Amino acid sequence: MLITAFPIACRADDRVQVAKGGLEAKLEYCETCHGLSAQGYRGYFPMPRLAGQNTQYIENQLRAFIERRRTNPIMANVAHVLSSSMVSALATHFRRLDPRPIGGAPRGSMATGKRIYEEGLPESNVPACSACHGSDGKGQNEIPRLAGQLYEYTVGQLSGWARVRGQGSAADTSAIMAPTARNMTRPQIEAVAAYVSYLQ
Ligand code: HEC
Ligand code: HEC
User: Fold this and answer.
1) For residues 159 and 4, what is the distance between their CA atoms, to the nearest angstrom?
2) Ligand 1 pocket, 28 CB below 6 A?
3) Helices (H) and strands (E) in the chain, counts
């Protein structure tokens, strides 16, 4: 597999539908938080990596922020002004980026993390993550890529799942993950978050 250390630039002629200047201005705005090549940023709040993320997942989450099914005041404000063609153009752009994971996660429980990822925790009803997120952590459609995701972000999502996701009255895609997040202990969450953070 060819791994590039630099983001792959998006060709201007691929950005149909949305005026070029409009998309670039928006991208610059997203990059102030999510990082110059959308690799994520370890700030006061961890800013998740968007690079290489599946377009359907990004679109689905932006809708969830707007509808407040996923609570985050920052992203609710960011998302509600985006037109649907802008959302598709942004998602297509991020999907093509491939920066190296930013790393920095503790490596002490990587072997445990790999085992949880590949085999789950049958004694606690936790399925293998790879069954949905793929053995390479790239996910598909509405199932997110976890490869290269920031350790702090993943730990935060899995430990706070029920407080943030699935806040709407009807069940949504977040319900698929709810029992898995609930059934993991903090050390198990940390182990699997460290493991996926290094996947390229
Ligand atoms: C002021 C900072 C900020 C800006 C600007 C910003 N974001 Fe975010 N974004 C965040 C934070 C913080 C989160 C994590 C929210 C959480 O913890 O649930 C996030 C989460 C997301 C997610 C969910 C990622 C996932 O893995 O579930 C998407 C998609 C996203 N942002 C897209 C965008 C896009 C597109 C833009 C530009 C139009 C943008 N963001 C601009 C701070 C920002
Ligand atoms: C049955 C399929 C399935 C399995 C098994 C599964 N997931 Fe998920 N996962 C999903 C779906 C679907 C989502 C998107 C949820 C949403 O829309 O809010 C998700 C979302 C996530 C997220 C949020 C990512 C982000 O960018 O915010 C994390 C972290 C995650 N899963 C980790 C795991 C881990 C770790 C395991 C194994 C212990 C696992 N998942 C097992 C389907 C699955």
Assistant:
1) 32
2) no
3) 10, 2
Q: Does domain 19-96 have CATH number 1.10.760.10?
A: yes
Question: Residue 139 C-alpha to ligand 2 middle, in angstroms?
Answer: 9
Judged against a pLDDT cut of 80, whether residue 20 lies above it is answered with no
Q: Count of alpha carbons within 13 Å of 189, Cβ hemisphere only?
A: 18
The whole-angstrom separation of Cα 89 and Cα 27 is 10
72 residue type, one letter: N
Q: What angle do CA 94, 150, 4 make, to 5 degrees?
A: 50
Top-tier CATH class for 110-197: mainly alpha
Mean pLDDT of 121-141: 98
Q: Is the pLDDT of residue 16 over 80?
A: no
* Token pair belonging to 15: 């950005």
Tell me the β-bridge partners of 140.
143
